[in-house]
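Example record

The entry below shows one chain as it appears in the dataset: sequence first, then structure tokens.
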Amino acid sequence: MDRIYAVAFVVISFLNIFRGGWAIGINYGLLGNNLPAPADTISRLQQLNVSKTRLFSPDHDVLTALHDSGVSVIVGTFNEDLESLSSDPSAAALWVETNILPHYSSVDITCLSAGNEVIPARSRTSTPP
């Protein structure tokens, strides 16, 4: 069964490439110092014909810079928000209202990702920091 999925994935990938559906995407990390301003970064993505990016957190300044840019984005949540987002519908609704809705009409938000490199609680004791 796994082989069928693998073959289907390859065929669909090739069909997307030939139909013009292929695109380059870049992960947009915000951990670091001396980072360029979000508007400068989005401008550079456009110059490089990058049409997709992934934010690891819902950064308001980056999402604002993405307004009407033509760059689609996957928006991530903070790992520490996962528990409340998964167990409390009102917390999830507030997160979307605060982080997504202000940008949704002007930014092509393609999906939301839940956390980044999440280590389940039961595995933390056996996983080195």
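Notes for this example: The chain has a mean pLDDT of 81. The longest helix spans residues 2-18.
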